[in-house]
Write a structure and sequence with these properties.
Elements: H1 8-32, H2 36-50, E1 60-63, H3 69-77, E2 82-85, H4 88-97, E3 102-105, E4 118-124, H5 133-143, E5 144-155, H6 160-172, H7 185-194, E6 197-205, H8 208-213, H9 228-244, E7 254-261
Helix pairs in contact: 1-4, 2-9
The structure holds S-adenosylmethionine.
The site of S-adenosylmethionine has 20 residues, from helix 1 and helix 3.
Length: 264
């Protein structure tokens, strides 16, 4: 049912690149989540996404569920969620971490699900690994029920300094693929609308807590600071304020997008 218009060879090579890349990343995620301060930050992020789930939504899909840390929190609140990922290595961690969830190994650019199979589709940090963004988002639209919701959080590049830092990191770091990319708010809204969805709202997420607590495998300074958990709580509160102020929300590293199918 994929609507991807990308040439197959290119899509296959990205799939192969993502599988290879995430082989090495699976243990890094486990390391990342081994710190209480990092878990604190990620839980705040997950709660922000999970609270968007409509009350009656029962059929939930997490695309690019990776090692399952988001899926575990979703599953705790809404049992029966499905996790999909292309990386067997990432899913192996999920199998241990969320033993009750249904896990599917598949390429999200070639979705294995039927139309209207889900009430809410989550996508935390996976869109930027795809190459045919509109094709992927169209597939999400098709998988949603008429009153279903897409809830995604993706790297935001509205801030030119963040954009530059990301471009260098994605190009130079072995932990990213050169084709991975962040989005401007305008860009991600346009892609979502082009795929046949209406964007209900967007919200920036993560400034200080994202930088200092989110990724101890990249920037580990809080590992050496006593009271890192307390500091992270303070950062989270400051970030909430910063992200709510229009001019300052430019500092946000991620953008949350909530959208619904635009049908009939
Ligand atoms: C940045 S990680 C995010 C993992 C998880 N959502 C989280 O926040 O911890 C991106 C995930 O997307 C998966 N991924 C990348 N390309 C994919 C594709 N084409 N189809 C399915 N999953 C893909 C990767 O294997 C990886 O687990």
């Amino acid at each position: 049912m994929s609507t991807s218009s990308q040439p197959k060879a290119a899509a296959q090579s990205n799939a192969a690149a993502q599988i290879e890349l995430h082989k090495a990343l699976a243990p890094r995620y486990a390391y990342r989540y081994s710190f209480a301060f990092s878990r604190r930050f990620q839980e705040e992020w997950h709660a922000e996404m999970i609270r968007q789930t409509p009350k009656g939504a029962k059929r939930l899909l997490d695309i690019g569920c990776g090692t399952g840390f988001f899926l575990a929190e979703l599953e705790a609140e809404r049992p029966g969620a499905v996790g999909l990922d292309i990386s067997h290595e990432m899913l192996k961690v999920s199998e241990e971490y969320v033993p009750n969830a249904k896990l599917v190994t598949a390429d999200a650019e070639h979705m294995p699900f039927q139309n209207a199979a889900f009430d809410t589709v989550f996508c935390k940090g996976s869109l930027h690994h795809m190459r045919d963004h509109v094709g992927f988002l169209k597939a999400c639209e098709e998988m949603l029920s008429d009153d279903g919701l897409l809830v995604m959080s993706e790297p935001c590049n509205d801030n030119p300094i963040i954009r530059l830092a990301r471009a260098i990191m994605y190009r130079k770091s072995p932990h990213f693929d050169v084709g991975d990319q962040g989005f401007t708010k305008k860009g991600i809204v346009a892609l979502t609308e082009e795929s046949g969805m209406e964007v209900l709202f967007t919200k920036k997420f993560g400034v200080l807590a994202y930088t200092f607590a989110g990724f101890p495998d990249h920037l580990g300074i809080l590992r050496f600071i006593p009271g890192a958990d307390l500091l992270t709580r303070a950062f989270i509160r400051i970030d909430r304020v910063l992200c709510a102020i229009p001019g300052l929300s430019l500092l946000g590293f991620h953008i949350l997008v909530v959208a619904k199918p635009k049908r009939g």
